[in-house]
Write a structure and sequence with these properties.
Oligomer: single chain
Number of helices: 11
Largest sheet: 4 strands, antiparallel
Structural class: alpha+beta
Number of strands: 20
Strand order of the largest sheet: 8-9-16-15
Helix content: 40-55%
Strand content: 15-25%
Number of domains: 4
């Protein structure tokens, strides 16, 4: 190929390339123009994500509407409901949906059937009982029913509804206040404390003739009143007292020391003179008094360190200045009865015995309701007392001897 042909071929190739580039540019321009045309005249389609958001929004709106409707219905129902709400119990008794009167009736019967008539108390082998009616045991059921009725009715609308819902699923149990006579129960326990086999023994005393005998106390147990009352209240409240005895709570205690001055003040008595009144007529008999026959300090010395089981303090009788048989016939103006008998004055021994006995009896005053004892007034008929041997009856026969003491020669003055 010559130079001229090569040049022509090269020009031809360049022309074809330029033509191809022009075509590509036109095509690109055409494509951009088409896009612009579509944007102006063709509607845009929504993406799947936008569709999903719209559906959820709708669903949420529907659910909220339903909840609001339910809330309104629930609120109206609870507002109009005149019974106790669901899930409420009193002392374990379900009173859901009951009226206040029905709930109180059911609760009263339930409590009455849950308690015994009396409770049992025990301490080791010792047992005793206390009647519930004696200590006035009762439950404040009216207040408990009111508390049950007020469940879900004491706050605002939202608080009430929330509380009612929680009660329906979580349940609410209301207790009942126990009431009893604590003073009477304390007295009962104090009395029971003196009956315990291992009780504390306090010092004591008694009069034996002309002596005061003082006994020393011993350590023992006493009932802890407050602690035992709390145990009784708990056992009654949870109904455990129906099937088992309540344990008595005790505490150890030393006896009180012997108080000589206190004993003296308790046994000391002034003598009382006899006297009578005319209008209205009444006789006031004399009375003997009593006192220590030693000083208070001497009595304390007798007691000493209180290590012995008993001590003896001598006593003395204080006699009145005016005795009943000294107030004269003006006090006893009426003769109620009389009796006389004959005896042989030649029997000197018998006469002596009659004089001794008559002198003992003479002046004795017997008040209404009192008993006359011949043996007590006359005393022992002994040689030492001045009595002589004289005819007496023994087993239906008359024999010589001293008159024997007859234990049946008493009579009452009405």
């Amino acid at each position: 190929m010559n130079v001229k042909e090569k040049k022509e071929n090269l020009d031809k190739e360049n022309l074809e390339k330029n033509s191809s580039n022009t075509t590509i540019i036109k095509e690109n321009l055409s494509t951009e123009s088409d896009k612009t045309s579509q944007t102006n005249f063709v509607p845009i389609k929504e993406s799947p994500e936008k569709k999903e958001v719209s559906i959820w929004t709708l669903l949420i709106a529907v659910v909220v509407s339903i909840l609001i409707l339910c809330f309104l219905i629930f609120t109206v129902y609870n507002t109009l409901n005149s019974n106790i709400v669901s899930g409420v119990s009193i002392k374990g008794l379900d009173v859901s949906n009951m009226s206040k009167s029905d709930a109180k009736y059911q609760l009263d019967n339930y409590l009455q059937n849950s308690l015994p008539e009396e409770i049992k108390l025990k301490h080791n082998d010792f047992e005793t009982t206390i009647s519930l009616s004696q200590i006035n045991v009762s439950f404040n059921t009216k207040a408990a029913v009111n508390n049950a009725y007020n469940v879900g009715r004491q706050g605002n609308i939202f608080q009430n509804n929330l509380y009612i819902l929680s009660t329906m699923f979580g349940k609410t149990n209301i207790d009942v206040n126990l009431e009893l006579d604590k003073e009477q129960l304390s007295k009962n326990l104090e009395d029971i404390s003196t009956q315990l086999p291992d009780k504390v023994v306090e010092s004591s005393y008694y009069i034996d003739g002309n002596n005061l005998i003082v006994t020393t106390g011993k350590e023992g147990n006493v009932i802890d009143i407050d602690a035992t009352i709390n145990a009784i209240r708990a056992a009654i409240s949870d109904f455990s007292c129906k099937d088992s005895a309540i344990e008595i709570i005790v505490t150890s205690k030393q006896p009180e020391p012997i108080d000589v001055e206190k004993i003296h003040n308790e046994i000391y008595k002034d003598p009382v003179d006899a006297y009578y009144t005319q209008n209205p007529f009444s006789v006031y008999p004399s009375e003997n008094g009593v006192d220590f026959n030693v000083s208070i300090e001497e009595a304390k010395a007798i007691i000493g360190d209180q290590t012995a089981e008993e001590y003896t303090i001598p006593l003395k009788i204080l006699y009145p200045n005016v005795t009943t048989n000294m107030i004269g016939t003006e006090a006893f103006p009426d003769l109620l009865s009389s009796y006389s008998t004959k005896y042989a004055v030649s029997n000197r021994n018998r006469t002596t015995n009659l004089i001794l006995a008559a002198n003992k009896i003479n002046g004795t005053v017997l008040m209404p309701g009192e008993t006359f004892s011949y043996n007590k007034v006359v005393g022992e008929r002994t040689i030492a007392a001045g009595y002589k041997e004289a005819p007496i009856y023994v087993s239906g026969e008359v024999v010589d001897g001293l008159r024997r003491r007859n234990l049946s020669d008493n009579f009452n003055f009405i």
